[in-house]
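User: Sequence in, structure out. Go.
Assistant: Echoing your sequence, followed by the structure tokens.
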Amino acid sequence: MPIVKHTSPLNAYWLLLFISKIISMNIDRTKYTAHYENGIVVAQWISIDMALDGANGESALDALDRSKALVEQWYKANSPVFPDTPIPPGPPSVIQVHQQEIRIGVLVEDIMSCKELVVLDSYRLMVKGNDELLAAYEKRRKEIVGSEISGI
């Protein structure tokens, strides 16, 4: 035998009241929000909350259309205009890049261009183990020491 639940008259009253409120719901405000992407700057949200003109029989859809027109009008008047630069057709042009030689360490020209003994002595540890650099170091050191001795 099925179990039947009985509702009290008070519960039925609240249920009918709730259903009647849903059926007779009045819309008195609309809200329109638009999202604009500039592409260069950040995105922008514009929102407007508008009351219906119920005295003149305006519907909610008419109020939304009016809100949308106001938002678009405000955006066009207050947003910066960026140039419309389309991407040219075809493959991108090739840019020729000349690779420069990467210098790591000391070269013979660096050693031979030293004019002071203090600067030349800073290369002393770097030339160890390389016979060509060591020969240039010793030659330039003798030249600088010889010019200093002759200047005394």
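User: And one key feature?
Assistant: The longest strand covers residues 29-36.
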